[in-house]
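FYI - complex with NDP, inputs then prediction.
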Amino acid sequence: MTDLTNKSALIIGGSRGIGAAIVRRFAKDGARVTFTYSGSHDAAQALATETGATAVKSDAADRAQVIEVVAAQGPLDILVVNAGVAMIGDPLSFDPDAVDWMIDINVRAPYHAAVEAGRRMPNGGRIVVIGSVNGDAVPFAGAAAYALTKSALQGLARGLARDFGDRGITVNIVQPGPVDTDMNPADGEIAEIVKPFLAIKRYGKAEEIAGLTAYLAGPEASYVTGAMHTIDGGFGA
Ligand code: NDP
């Protein structure tokens, strides 16, 4: 457990997978949680009922909606940007608009959400963005565009850590390896590609990523900032 009692937290992209695990963990740890979703209305409502969190429909691909939903929360103690999409495949066959859409969700949304949160965050606030081990390593073909979006988050964390550091606000990236979710099921096509690279021979669980995120959002992580935190079963070792 991490003590997040009475902390106000916003999770961008919390309806499913890793985001939903973070919502559950933060709610258990005592935070007042709001989370956004885009397409998964039923899952979002069910999670809100289960945890007592508030679900808000907001499309992370739309800059105005991202800024608006962050601003609407007032002074947030904790912002987590988890929403992400992955396009894995031959870059020569990708629709350029789809690639730009992924960049909007994976890069533009975290940047604007973090800056907007930083405007009114109290001293000692926490910003965590869910990146990927592919921000550091791309040991198979077909992941250039996705890896680009996750590498970009590293610059975001390093830069904003310095912009907000004098207020004790920390900015960190969590970099998961393969985690069993709708995006990357443990029995899916990607699993066959990535399994040989794992030191721990199984997929990660969303709850394991939520645990590291809770630590970074909590009081013990006050001296951890501008840093990437890989949690990947040894994928990148
Ligand atoms: P899922 O596809 O299982 O869930 C994605 C979540 O993001 C959903 O809650 C979804 O909400 C939300 N989301 C996606 N697009 C938008 C949008 N436009 N607006 C608002 N919310 C959105 O993915 P994971 O849980 O696996 O991934 C979560 C994060 O972890 C991503 O950033 C991903 O890149 C990263 N990651 C995942 C890994 C894995 O192996 N699973 C490995 C490394 C990193 P909704 O359905 O309501 O639109």
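The chain is about 40% helix and 15% strand. The longest strand covers residues 170-176.
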